[in-house]
Amino acid sequence: MDSYLLQLGENIRSVRSRRGMTIHQLARASKLSARFLATVELGRGNISVGRLNILAHALGVPIEMLAADAQPTSPAFNQSTAFLKKLPPGQLRDAHKLLLEKFSNADASLRRSRIALIGLRGAGKSTLGSLLAQQIGVPFIELDKRIERDSGVTLSIIFDLYGPSGYRRMEREALELILAKYPRFVLATGGSIVADPGGYNRLLSECFTVWLRAKPEEHMARVLAQGDRRPMANNRQAMRDLRRILWSREALYRQADTVVETTGQTIRQSLQALALLVGPSP
Prior knowledge:
Layout: H1 2-18, H2 23-30, H3 34-41, H4 49-59, H5 63-67, H6 75-86, H7 89-103, H8 108-112, E1 114-118, H9 125-136, E2 140-142, H10 143-151, H11 155-181, E3 185-188, H12 197-206, E4 208-213, H13 216-225, H14 238-253, E5 258-261, H15 267-278
Parallel strand pairs: 1-3, 1-4, 2-3, 4-5
Helix pairs in contact: 9-15, 10-11, 11-12
């Protein structure tokens, strides 16, 4: 605790100094006493979250910048973070893609030859992915099946034994092995890979990603048509839950390079649209 309070105090003092504010000016802006602020900056005061938030507003920085349990970040990082936070969702997605393309060190031609399909269950990732791989002459890989093969157990057992964090770890390991082994492929990912920042950023930087998008009703109908009754088992709110999941992940799915709308489309029509967007494999 003592070391963290020292770090917190240094963070506040560092930001205040960069703003060119004296401790008395900060006291007036935050309506906190200069004596109390001096105690906090020396690492001797345990400031509440509410007061820390007031300080963050007075200094014009995110509260997490002050609360960070690490060395103060550079002004360039802080300015970039503040700038990105002000961008509307569409421009933020574009900025994210530009950063990945510029600084991920991924080979552009290699990335284009690795097609990754994302989307919820029932989007058509396995069906369309397999057909697309045959059409362009590359291996087709299903990430969840690769995880099961490498671990020797089913996904349900993985979740029972290791929980979501254990599954995420295996998912990232499987993805890394695939990237190391195959220069060209079509990959069908799990629907929740977008919820893992590390794995999803890796996917976005190394693969040409396609969101197979469909309405919730179509997702459910396709899963049920495959004979899988689990989505409806003992759950009268299954459709509402599906809509909630899709809504919560939509902004993440939109980070993909492109989107193929499969609602109301035949497999052939969706495959044609997908092949047209992907283009011939390098």
